[in-house]
Automatic annotation (TrEMBL):
Alphabetically ordered keywords of this record: Transferase
Protein name in the entry: CoA transferase
Domain of life assignment: Bacteria
Record InterPro entries: CoA-transferase_III_domain, CoA-Trfase_fam_III, CoA-Trfase_III_dom3_sf, CoA-Trfase_III_dom_1_sf
């Protein structure tokens, strides 16, 4: 049952792959009606992206949940006319074509506004709609490198490391959802508010999070080189190995936290040592500080260490595999993994709803739809087409 806070908001999701579609998913989780517009007979490229079980894509059910699938060819006039009819009855359009594509097809924002002056258009691309690189193809991994993120990660004696999954795409998706609700609020709650277009570059979503990098270079002329963990920010901090060989992450981001760690280790003398008594001097002695912690961590098992530092209020976590996550009681209690029905697999597990609203919680009303599953219903109910008109459109490969 749909009672989310965005109930009544209709979104046309013209986008493909991950970043923009993920933003639409987040909005759909909280009640928005999301109509995913896909190319007839082909659909979103994400449908063919791994992992798979047999021929069944396993990513699709969660990354397209709470959406309806409408097949529609936007290259031709018939498809564009149908799109304009849908725009008249929608609140938001989300697209991630290369800049200039909608304009080339004759359905740029100026045209869409003629159909609905209040429409909000959210545009995602690799480098944004403006600037000398706007025309370039944009994907998550190159955008991550362009943002400065990749430069920071890895070991100094080895090549830089890219994230092992599409991190920047998912972060950008959060910006898509944030942009959508912000633009809606402005349009509907502010006097004289109106629809507008929103321009998001993939690289910008990560770059926005690196104010430390900008400030350090601007004021100190420092080019931060790659290093593992949080070196340069907090000490001690990093990855440590326990007595039986498990790996944990431990960080003390404040002097008060380090005080608790020193007590937990039975090394209170460090609190009066000029090499360790503040974070600033510990950073100057980072390797020594980390080595003291590493030696102590090796004296305890993972469970002993976790319990002991939890009791002392020191932030620590085992480095979890997905198997650890499936077996963890906290994940279970928080419903971070939920099981939903699947027409061919029987059931499938996927991440739950985040965040948790007390009065208007989100919901999973359907998994990623089959290609064109809702085409006829949408064209009848929203566009007002008759069965014979739909049949003709299908024969002409418009839908």
């Amino acid at each position: 049952m749909n009672n989310g806070p965005l109930t009544g908001v209709r979104i046309l999701d013209l986008s493909t792959m991950i970043a923009a579609p993920f933003g639409a998913v987040l909005l759909g989780d909280f009640g928005a009606e999301v109509i995913k517009v896909e190319i007839p007979n082909r659909g979103d490229s994400l449908r063919n992206m791994g992992p798979f079980k047999g021929n069944e894509p396993l990513r699709w059910p969660a990354l397209a949940r709470n959406k309806k699938s409408l097949t529609l060819d936007l290259h031709g006039e018939e498809g564009q006319c149908i799109l304009k009819e849908l725009v008249k009855k929608s609140d938001i359009i989300i697209e991630n074509f290369r800049p200039g594509t909608l304009e080339k097809w004759g359905i740029g924002y100026d045209v869409l506004k003629e159909a609905n002056p209040d429409i909000i258009l959210i545009r995602v691309s690799g480098y944004g709609q403006t600037g000398p690189y706007a025309h370039k193809a944009g994907f998550g991994t190159p955008a991550t490198a362009f943002s400065g993120f990749t430069y920071l990660h890895g070991y100094s004696d080895r090549p830089p490391i890219s994230p092992s999954f599409s991190l920047v795409d998912y972060i950008t998706g959060i910006y898509v959802a944030f942009s959508a609700v912000t633009a809606l609020y402005y349009r509907d709650a502010i006097p004289n508010g109106k629809g507008q277009s929103v321009d998001i570059g993939l690289y910008e979503s990560v770059f926005r999070m690196m104010e430390f990098l900008v400030a350090d270079y601007d004021q100190n002329g420092l080019i931060k080189e790659r290093s593992p963990g949080l070196s340069g920010h907090s000490s001690p901090a990093g990855t440590f190995q326990t007595k039986e060989g498990h790996w944990v992450v431990l960080v003390t981001s404040s002097d008060r936290t380090f005080e608790r760690l020193a007590v937990a280790m039975g090394k209170e003398e460090m609190l009066n040592d000029e090499r360790f008594y503040t974070n600033k001097v510990r950073l100057e002695n980072f390797n020594l500080t980390n080595s003291i912690v590493a030696d102590w961590v090796k004296t305890l098992t993972r469970d002993e260490l976790q319990q002991h530092l939890d009791n002392h209020g020191v932030p620590i976590s085992a480095i979890y595999s997905i198997e650890d996550i499936f077996n963890d009681e906290h994940y279970r209690e928080r419903e971070n993994i939920v099981q939903v029905e699947h027409p061919r697999l029987g059931s499938i597990k996927m991440p739950g709803i985040v965040p948790k609203f007390s009065e208007t919680p989100g919901s999973i009303r359907n998994i990623g739809p089959d290609l064109g599953e809702h085409t006829d219903t949408i064209l009848k109910e929203l566009v007002g087409l008759k069965d014979e008109e739909i049949i003709k459109l299908r024969e002409n490969n418009v839908i």
